[in-house]
């Protein structure tokens, strides 16, 4: 039986063929691990990986965009807090009739298929309902299901207001993040940021492959590990020689350089760094090495302002609301995110330029 299309009924779906030939519509399935960082990371990656984009809609854990020339392999290799990206082939209201009509509009090759749906938040339809509805329509059109080894996997993202049908084009390497948890690396120190958040913050800096990223308080080199895995040249500075020696074992095989130095006196030329990601030290170590945390903050910000190329991004993390000090040093704070670690620690994440 040859797969066929149906023209019965009034469609509420929006098919890909009706959109601009220059732009493709994508749905980003965002992680629920943080309320604001996943969306910001997705938008930052769109700036890096496409020649232009615009946000179409922003729903709970689902960001829909139109993008031109999106580098899908580069996007998938970098994503942290986006689970997957689906190229939208049809979309509709979350009703049985709407889903059926949208499934009829799918323009697919004559291959075996499997349908997988993800429900995001409170929705009128469950993921099982959508899988069953879409599968039923495709079967009636002559397509053959193969749940074990399909040639095509249709993805459905179900939100409160819309259902998006399409094909997955990028997926985050979630297993890789688990394998790089701090205690599983050669050199470990308590309080180290998890790799998924580290990757997201590197992405927020909008640094590109081959560019130079600086971490002036490198610690165990978590930011540089994630940067190196994305083809970014990392440079880390730390005042403690034993920390630098240990962190080098975490960077084996990656393009990263570590030096013993003072963040308030960086051995770098003016305007020589493409991006900065920094998690300022908390507690006694900062007091011992700098005299006071305020002195360390002021001195390091002045140096980062000096070495960072104008209009490029700096991500500055502290446990205090230091936005005023950052702007006093000459940066503009464009985003602020908060991440609660435990009762006594909430990270303040400042995206600056």
Which secondary structure elements does this structure contain, and how are they paired or packed?
Blueprint: E1 24-30, H1 37-49, E2 52-59, E3 62-68, H2 72-78, E4 82-92, H3 96-105, E5 113-119, H4 127-140, E6 152-158, E7 163-171, H5 174-179, H6 195-204, E8 212-215, H7 222-229, E9 233-238, H8 241-248, E10 256-260, E11 275-279, H9 284-290, H10 293-307, E12 314-318, H11 323-328, E13 333-342, E14 345-352
Parallel strand pairs: 5-6, 8-9, 8-11, 9-10, 11-12
Antiparallel strand pairs: 1-3, 1-4, 2-3, 4-7, 6-7, 12-14, 13-14
Helix pairs in contact: 1-6, 3-4, 6-7
- Which secondary-structure class do the elements indicate? alpha/beta
Indicate the CATH topology of the largest domain.
Rossmann fold
How many helices in DSSP terms? 11
CATH architecture of the largest domain: 3-Layer(aba) Sandwich
Query: What is the average per-residue confidence, as pLDDT, rounded to a whole number?
Result: 92
Catalytic activity: guanosine(10) in tRNA + 2 S-adenosyl-L-methionine = N(2)-dimethylguanosine(10) in tRNA + 2 S-adenosyl-L-homocysteine + 2 H(+)
InterPro entries: RlmKL-like_Mtase (IPR000241), SAM-dependent_MTases_sf (IPR029063), THUMP_dom (IPR004114)
GO biological process, one term: tRNA methylation
Subunit structure: Monomer.
């Amino acid at each position: 039986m040859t797969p066929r299309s149906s023209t019965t009924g009034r469609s509420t779906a929006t098919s890909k063929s009706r959109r601009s030939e220059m732009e493709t519509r994508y749905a980003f399935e965002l992680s629920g691990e943080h309320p604001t960082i996943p969306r910001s990371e997705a938008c930052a990656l769109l700036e890096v990986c496409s020649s232009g984009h615009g946000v179409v809609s922003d729903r709970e854990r689902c960001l829909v965009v139109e993008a031109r020339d999106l580098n899908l392999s580069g996007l998938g290799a970098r994503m942290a807090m986006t689970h997957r990206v689906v190229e939208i082939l049809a979309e509709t209201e979350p009703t049985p009739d709407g889903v059926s009509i949208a499934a009829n509009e799918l323009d697919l090759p004559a291959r075996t298929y499997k349908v997988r749906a993800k429900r995001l938040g409170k929705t009128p339809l469950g993921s099982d309902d959508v899988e069953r509805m879409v599968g039923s329509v495709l079967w009636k059109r002559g397509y053959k299901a193969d749940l074990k080894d399909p040639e095509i996997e249709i993805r459905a993202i179900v939100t409160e207001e819309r259902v998006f049908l399409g094909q997955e084009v990028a997926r985050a390497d979630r297993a890789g993040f688990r394998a790089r948890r701090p205690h599983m690396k050669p050199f470990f120190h308590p309080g180290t940021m998890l790799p998924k958040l580290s990757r997201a913050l590197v992405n927020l800096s909008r640094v590109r492959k081959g560019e130079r990223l600086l971490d002036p308080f490198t610690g165990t080199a978590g930011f540089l590990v994630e940067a190196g895995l994305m083809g970014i040249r990392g440079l880390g500075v730390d005042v403690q020689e034993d920390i630098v020696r240990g962190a080098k074992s975490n960077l084996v095989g990656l393009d990263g350089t570590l030096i013993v130095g003072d963040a308030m006196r960086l051995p770098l030329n003016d305007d020589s760094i493409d991006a900065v990601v920094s998690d300022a030290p908390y507690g006694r170590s900062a007091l011992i090495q700098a005299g006071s945390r305020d002195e360390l903050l002021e001195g390091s910000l002045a140096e980062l302002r000096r070495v960072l190329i104008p209009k490029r991004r700096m991500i500055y993390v502290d446990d205090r609301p230091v936005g005023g000090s950052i702007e006093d040093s000459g940066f503009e704070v464009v985003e602020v995110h908060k991440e609660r670690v435990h009762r006594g620690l909430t990270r303040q994440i400042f995206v600056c330029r």
